[in-house]
Specification:
The protein has 131 residues and is an alpha+beta fold. The chain folds into 2 domains: 85 residues, TATA-Binding Protein, CATH 3.30.310; 45 residues, no CATH class. The chain is built from 3 helices and 7 strands, in the order H-E-E-E-E-H-E-E-E-H. Strand 5 and strand 6 form a beta hairpin.
Length: 131
C-alpha cells in the first residue's frame, strides 16, 4: 500500500489540487480569487492592478505596466517550472491583437469560424446584409 502525498497528473483530483496549490501561491502575493469566476485572480503589485486568467495550466497575465507583469512572472517562476511564451497572441481559441497606440485589445475567432464554414460547405456562400 502506498500513500500519495500529491495528486498525480491525469487523476480526477489533479485539477482541484493544482488550483488549490496555485491559489495558495497567488494568495502569498496578495491576489484574490474573483467571486464570479474561480479562474480569474486580481491583485495589486506596486500600486497597479494585475489580472491573472488561469485555464488548466495556462496563465494569462495582464497589467498596465511591464514591471508588474515581470514581478508576477518572477514570483511564479520561483515556485513552479514556468515557460514564458511571450506576449499572448492566441488563448482559448481566440486570437488576441493589441494596438498600443489606440489602447485597444481585439479578440477574434477567425480560425474556428473558418473551420465551421468549411465543414458545412459554406465557403462559397454569399452573405446577406440582413439575417
Amino acid at each position: 500500500m502506498c500513500r500519495l502525498l500529491r495528486a498525480l497528473y491525469g487523476l480526477r483530483q489533479a485539477p482541484r489540487a493544482w488550483h488549490r496549490c496555485l491559489k495558495k501561491v497567488l494568495e502569498d502575493l496578495e491576489f484574490e480569487v474573483s467571486s464570479v469566476d474561480a479562474a480569474l485572480f486580481r491583485g495589486t503589485v506596486d500600486g497597479e492592478t494585475v489580472w491573472l486568467l488561469v485555464w488548466v495550466d495556462d496563465i494569462l497575465v495582464a497589467a498596465q505596466g511591464e514591471e508588474q507583469v515581470a514581478k508576477v512572472k518572477a514570483h511564479l517562476r520561483a515556485k513552479f517550472d514556468v515557460r514564458d511564451l511571450g506576449p499572448a497572441t492566441y488563448f482559448l481559441g481566440m486570437e488576441l491583437s493589441r494596438d498600443q497606440e489606440a489602447r485597444s485589445l481585439k479578440l477574434t475567432q477567425k480560425k474556428p469560424i473558418g473551420e465551421l464554414i468549411s465543414r458545412y460547405g459554406l465557403a462559397n456562400a454569399r452573405t446577406r446584409s440582413v439575417p
